[in-house]
TrEMBL record:
<feature type="domain" description="HTH luxR-type">
    <location>
        <begin position="683"/>
        <end position="748"/>
    </location>
</feature>
<protein>
    <submittedName>
        <fullName>LuxR family maltose regulon positive regulatory protein</fullName>
    </submittedName>
</protein>
<dbReference type="InterPro" id="IPR016032">
    <property type="entry name" value="Sig_transdc_resp-reg_C-effctor"/>
</dbReference>
<dbReference type="Pfam" id="PF00196">
    <property type="entry name" value="GerE"/>
</dbReference>
<keyword id="KW-0238">DNA-binding</keyword>
<dbReference type="Pfam" id="PF25873">
    <property type="entry name" value="WHD_MalT"/>
</dbReference>
<keyword id="KW-0804">Transcription</keyword>
<dbReference type="GO" id="GO:0006355">
    <property type="term" value="P:regulation of DNA-templated transcription"/>
</dbReference>
<keyword id="KW-0805">Transcription regulation</keyword>
<dbReference type="InterPro" id="IPR059106">
    <property type="entry name" value="WHD_MalT"/>
</dbReference>
<feature type="region of interest" description="Disordered">
    <location>
        <begin position="669"/>
        <end position="691"/>
    </location>
</feature>
<dbReference type="InterPro" id="IPR000792">
    <property type="entry name" value="Tscrpt_reg_LuxR_C"/>
</dbReference>
<dbReference type="InterPro" id="IPR027417">
    <property type="entry name" value="P-loop_NTPase"/>
</dbReference>
<dbReference type="InterPro" id="IPR011990">
    <property type="entry name" value="TPR-like_helical_dom_sf"/>
</dbReference>
<dbReference type="InterPro" id="IPR036388">
    <property type="entry name" value="WH-like_DNA-bd_sf"/>
</dbReference>
<dbReference type="GO" id="GO:0003677">
    <property type="term" value="F:DNA binding"/>
</dbReference>
Length: 757
């Protein structure tokens, strides 16, 4: 994946770069046999949710699907994605899936903001949108090739959700070497599964004859063809291996009689016959390039120290089915995995230890061209832990801004423990990635290790932090995990360490703003957020905290009744989220919009928005964010009369509140005293109805808690509580708390209210 070799936190996050060769089927090969019987089975899948091609390597799964897609693309939308190990990061996987579907269906309208790539966010936010959009498209087919490379359970679970919920006329086609966890038993029982297994994909006698005598023009007798089919068990790759050697053999019948089909014999056959069919220079080039996932002429030149590799690869691709072009221009290629495995064995036998040097050269080539992710992978393979650590330390923030938390964590997992646990830069990158993905316990483990190394590490970091302590303090100020007291202290310390000229200053300031808001100090928080907004707009690259700051400012404006400011801030927050791909990165936009809709008496519209926000808040893992989202959700449910659900939400919120740590709240504001304008105690609603929030405050006034206690329970400032109390007094015509409660009870308001969130 292309990217910047070094990213500073104040630089704009680059757009996600997609590898073109993954998004279309490989070019058709002249030697491939058109297998009509299997193409017919692929066509007869109406009403089937899943078509599965499951067989070991070399059974022609990709070749069959390539031919089928080519034949059917004119009559239906056909999307193709070749999976690889990077797609285990859900953000990358679904970016590719959506792009593949868009290319097949240009009218498909789905927002793919995947900076928060958790399975819950995908399953509950993005995928329902995708299913709804696919419902408006006719007969879409999506092919996922090499599904066995998708090993992450969460990524697989998201694909399974799509299988279970896709429209009836949507067809998912999966090619894999291993059994996929896609609910096959249920699909099979309901007649919604088409399966092509190894027995189906084996060449029969007629197909083998077409391949050996028609395509390869070997002139074999029917008995020799039958013998090869028997010896190979119809394994297409085995027949091709035999054909490569038979082309040069004088005694073809004798060679057929010696061919065996066991893995050991096939491997021996590959070594002794297929490689020997090429001249030594070609053999050496192929062996050296086997360390690469994708091969190009210039890259191959860098590995071999020679020139002209581009033409050599083109020539080999024309004569060797095991070297597959990945594009129509012949710029990039890939070896068949079985053949690549053999070549790597041969490389080690012929040149012991050379693989390490080749990975080093590949690392340097990709690094110099800005392909940081691939460079890191080769550096780790080569054991260049220092070089890999340098790149990770430079680029982790860019990866996180793209939503690739899994990628950063996976990189750090690949370092030997002695290296990881002694490098404060790697531990900090890991702690940030784990925190951003809501993995508190794992992040805490890395933070403990960082603390042990602080005394041994001095100086600035490649990511722009002035010191390891500054990074750690900013991290802890940004992710409070429910402890507001500690988060505030860490945010204050972070600002001491990162001055106004630091690229991380807006993030440190944002942490302080959050702490002030959680403490109920809305005026101070709003001032802090305003500075963050100004800095983020001026320096760019901090779109996530800009979006969150606008969201929380809108909530504060709503709490204080500044409706025009609230609406303007919601609009700005939504615009930033859409422009920078953050709709699913943070719960802030959903919370802000849902709160505004509630305040305008539109709870039915607010409810689905807040439910989406709740999904994102759960993924973020921050109790304080979850608590506020639950509060707004409870408001919607109560206004809709769904009191039982609102009570459940309130119960969860109280449990979360009990586990959080807040600083002491300032002294309560003395309630106003004024004469009642009405002495009526009749059980009639007041002329001016109470809002839902005022009903909640009135319910709490009936208890024993002070206004300070009410502010703590509602998670708002004292001034906000005081404003609600004053409005209640005015509307009810009350002069005291007791009188307000009594009048409210007589008006039936206390029966209307439910336990607050």
């Amino acid at each position: 994946m292309a990217g910047s070799p070094a990213a500073s936190p104040h630089s704009g996050a680059p757009a996600r770069v997609l590898v073109e060769t993954k998004l279309h089927a490989p070019p058709a090969r002249e030697q491939v046999v058109l297998r009509e019987r299997l193409l017919g089975r692929l066509d007869q899948v109406a009403g089937h949710r899943l078509t599965l091609l499951a067989a070991p390597a070399g059974y022609g799964k990709t070749s069959l699907l390539t031919a089928w897609v080519g034949a059917e693309a004119h009559s239906r939308p056909m999307a193709w994605l070749s999976l690889d190990a990077d797609d285990n990061d859900a953000s990358i996987l679904w970016s590719y899936v959506l792009e593949a579907l868009r290319r097949a269906c240009p009218a498909l309208d789905v927002v793919d903001d995947l900076a928060s790539p958790s399975t819950p966010a995908l399953v509950e936010v993005l995928l329902p949108r995708l299913v709804n959009a696919l419902s408006d498209q006719a007969g879409v087919t999506l092919v996922l090739d090499d599904f066995h490379l998708l090993t992450d359970s969460r990524a697989r679970a998201s694909v399974r959700w799509l299988v279970e919920h896709a429209p009836d006329d949507f067809q998912l086609v999966v090619a894999t070497r291993t059994e996929p966890d896609l609910g096959l038993s249920a699909l099979r029982a309901h007649g919604q599964l088409t399966e092509l297994r190894a027995d189906d994909l084996r060449f029969n006698l007629d197909e083998a004859d077409v391949f050996l005598n028609g395509r390869q023009m070997l002139g074999l007798s029917t008995s020799d063809v039958r013998l090869l089919v028997e010896r190979t068990l119809g394994w297409p790759a085995g027949l091709y291996l035999a054909a490569l050697s038979l082309q040069r053999a004088e005694d073809r019948h004798g060679l057929v009689s010696r061919f065996e089909a066991s893995n050991r014999h096939v491997t021996d056959f590959l070594e002794s016959e297929v490689l020997e069919a090429n001249d030594p220079a070609d053999q050496d080039l192929m062996a050296r390039c086997a360390v690469l996932d994708r091969i190009s002429g210039p890259l191959c030149d860098a590995l071999t120290g020679q020139s002209g590799s581009h033409e050599t690869l083109r020539r080999l691709a024309r004569s060797n089915l095991f070297l597959t072009p990945l594009d129509d221009d012949g710029a990039w290629y890939r070896f068949h995995p079985l053949f690549a495995q053999l070549l790597r064995v041969q490389l080690e036998r012929r040149h012991p230890g050379l693989a390490n040097e080749l990975h080093q050269r590949a690392f340097a080539w990709h690094r110099d061209r800005g392909d940081t992710a691939t460079a890191i992978n080769h550096a780790l393979e080569a054991g260049l832990h220092s070089e890999a650590a340098d790149l990770v330390a430079q680029t982790w923030y860019t990866q996180i801004n793209l939503g690739r938390f899994h990628t950063v964590v996976a990189w750090t997992d690949r370092f030997p423990p002695r290296v990881l646990h002694s490098d404060v830069r790697l531990l900090l990158a890991r702690a940030w990635a784990l925190s951003a993905s809501g993995q508190e316990a794992e992040a805490a483990e890395s933070i403990v290790r960082v603390e042990r190394l602080l005394d041994t590490h001095a100086g600035s970091l490649p990511d722009g932090f002035s010191s390891a302590e500054a990074s750690l303090e900013t991290l802890r100020g940004s992710f409070p995990w429910g402890n507001v007291r500690e988060a505030h202290a860490h945010a204050v310390r972070a600002l001491e360490l990162e001055g106004p000229d630091s690229p991380w200053y807006p993030v440190a300031r944002w942490g302080l703003a959050m702490a002030d808001m959680w403490r109920g100090r809305f005026r101070e928080a709003e001032q802090q957020y305003a500075e963050v907004i100004a800095l983020a707009n001026r320096r760019q690259g901090h779109w996530l905290i800009l979006c969150a700051s606008l969201a929380y400012c809108s909530m504060i404006a709503g709490e204080e009744g500044r409706t025009e400011a609230q609406a303007r801030l919601v609009d700005e927050c939504t615009l930033v989220a859409r422009e920078h791909g953050l709709v699913n990165a943070t719960s802030g936009p959903s919370m802000a919009l849902g709160a505004m809709l509630n305040d305008r008496g539109r709870p039915a519209e607010a409810l689905p928005v807040l439910q989406r926000g709740l999904t994102l808040a759960r993924h973020q893992g921050q109790p304080l964010i979850l608590l506020r989202t639950l509060r707004y959700l409870g408001d919607s449910l109560t206004m809709l009369g769904r009191t039982q659900e609102a009570a459940a939400v309130a119960s969860e919120a109280r449990m979360i509140m009990a586990a959080c740590v807040f600083p002491a709240i300032d002294s309560p504001i003395t309630p106003p005293t004024r004469r009642a304008t009405s002495e009526s105690t009749s059980r009639q609603p007041a002329p001016e109805p109470l809002t839902h929030r005022e009903l909640t405050v009135l319910t709490l006034l009936a208890g024993k808690g002070s206004e300070a206690d009410i502010g703590r329970e509602l998670f708002v400032s004292h001034s906000t509580v005081h404003s609600h109390v004053r409005s209640i007094y005015r509307k009810l015509g009350a002069a005291s708390r007791a009188e307000a409660v009594e009048l409210g009870r007589n008006c039936g308001y206390l029966e209307m209210a439910v336990a607050p969130v």
